């Protein structure tokens, strides 16, 4: 492994950790999100997007605090809501879905580190199966806790709506993630990377950005059709 790549990976991971910490501190300082699940989405997004997520948080996601309210809250009591531009809603919807995927992927990668699973003779394929199952569960859970308070549906109705809203987008996210990890594993390095090294997690950061990119078109379509809620 080239030294420069190891150093670059370490810098990226440290930057992501600092960005995540800054967002958490700002949230606890009184800038809680109007939708509580977003208090998890933004720090998780920073784990792979790093300073870019930090910029997006302060640019479009930060709440003005308990006194100022949030851009998506009512401007005045009984007044009209100010919606974000569609491109922002699409990006936020993708990060929302991606946070569940990211959390599931992190948990599954460590699980398969301690409990290796092999499929078609390759541990990476076994890890991908667990990745998808956990990413799907976390992703649907994140969407459930978005839809239920917004639509005020019953638990079963909210679960069905969450499945409709997020099944496609999280699948497209995982396709992008798997695509990059396959390129990194079989083309760039020619072998599976050790999960105890920073380069593996740096590759996973890039994979999450790839997943974000592949989930954008389907998220746009779901929003346009009204299947997925605007964040």
The string of secondary-structure elements, in order, is HHHHHHH
Low-confidence stretches: 67-80
Q: Which percent range fits the helix content?
A: over 70%
Arithmetic mean of pLDDT: 84
Using the CA coordinates, give the radius of gyration. Answer: 18 Å
Total strand count, please?
Answer: 0
Total helices: the number is: 7
Structural class: mainly alpha
Largest sheet: none
Distance between the termini: 41 Å
* Residues in β-strands, percent: under 5%
Overall geometric form: globular
Explain the layout of strands and helices.
Layout: H1 3-28, H2 38-49, H3 51-61, H4 86-114, H5 123-152, H6 155-188, H7 198-224
Helix pairs in contact: 1-2, 1-3, 1-7, 2-3, 2-4, 4-5, 4-6, 4-7, 5-6, 6-7
Question: What do these coordinates show?
Answer:
By secondary structure, this protein is mainly α. The chain is built from seven helices and no strands.
Brief descriptors of the model:
mainly alpha; 231 residues; 7 helices
How do you describe this structure in short?
Helices cover 73% and strands 0% of the residues.
């Amino acid at each position: 492994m080239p030294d420069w790549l190891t150093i670059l990976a370490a810098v990226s991971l440290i930057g992501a950790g600092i960005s995540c910490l800054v967002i958490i501190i700002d949230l606890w300082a009184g800038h809680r999100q109007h939708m509580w699940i977003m208090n998890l989405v933004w720090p998780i997004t920073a784990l792979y997007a790093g300073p870019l997520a930090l910029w997006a948080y302060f640019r479009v996601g930060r709440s003005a605090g308990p006194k100022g309210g949030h851009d998506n809250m009512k401007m005045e009591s009984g007044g009209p809501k100010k919606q974000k531009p569609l491109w922002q809603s699409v990006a936020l919807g993708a990060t929302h879905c991606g946070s569940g995927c990211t959390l599931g992927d992190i948990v599954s990668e460590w699980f398969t580190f301690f409990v290796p699973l092999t499929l078609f003779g390759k541990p990476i394929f076994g890890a991908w199966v667990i990745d998808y199952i956990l990413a799907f569960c976390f992703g649907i859970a994140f969407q459930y806790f978005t839809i239920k308070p917004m639509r005020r549906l019953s638990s079963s109705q909210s679960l069905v709506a969450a499945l409709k809203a997020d099944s496609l987008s999280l699948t497209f996210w995982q396709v992008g993630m798997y695509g990059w990890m396959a390129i990194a594993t079989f083309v760039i390095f020619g072998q599976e990377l050790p999960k105890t090294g920073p380069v593996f997690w740096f590759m996973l950061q890039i994979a999450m950005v790839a997943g974000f990119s592949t989930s954008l078109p389907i998220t746009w379509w779901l929003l346009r059709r009204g299947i997925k809620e605007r964040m």
